[in-house]
Amino acid sequence: MPTITRLTPPAFPAHVDNLAEVLADAVRAGASVGFRTPFATADAAAWWRTRRPAVEDGTLVVWTASDATGVVGTVSLSLESKPNGRHRAEVVKLMVHSRSRGRGLGRALLTTAEQAAASAGATLLLLDTATGSPAERLYESAGWTRYGIVPGYATDPSGRPEPCSFFYKQLGV
Predict the structure, then answer these.
(1) 165 lies in a domain?
(2) What is the Cα–Cα distance from 61 to 45, expressed in whole angstroms?
(3) Which of 56, 69, 71, 73 has the greatest number of CB atoms lying within 10 Å of its CB?
(4) CATH number, position 38
(5) Is 94 inside any structural domain?
(6) In whole angstroms, what separates CA 142 from the centre of its chain?
(7) pLDDT truncated to tens, each residue of the chain (173 aa)?
(8) Domain hosting residue 61, numbered range
């Protein structure tokens, strides 16, 4: 199993290119993670660089999963900063490189984010994913509850609108 590491704010910039490769691979594979093709690794790196202020201020926590080939997965946890929402967090950008899928890494990354959220005092987690995707099956099998589907919520990388499923998980319940 790859090693999962939380990126500290000082370490984050050195991992942007690796994170970009995982993101670009996900988009190439058709994942609906917020981007459309064509989407180069340089575009992905530019996007990850925009996340640096959130990593530095602690509202975004990013992990990488690495093996002998390099970074093969990532997950982020977006912590709510509003006073009335500090009990919740959002799991974002859970991605496993295509060369490492099917080995339980997605579940390990999800568990890492869930445990960190609980340690940070979050009792409610949220996320969304493309309806019918392998990610949706992962979340359902990990005890997440789907609370709705919105038709045409986002587009796939080719620009085709697709439905999105929204999930929550209560921690410590």
Answers:
(1) no
(2) 17
(3) 73
(4) 3.40.630.30
(5) yes
(6) 15
(7) 899 999 999 999 999 999 999 999 999 999 999 999 999 999 999 999 999 999 999 999 999 999 999 999 999 999 999 999 999 999 999 999 999 999 999 999 999 999 999 999 999 999 999 999 999 999 999 999 999 999 999 999 999 999 999 999 999 87
(8) 3-123
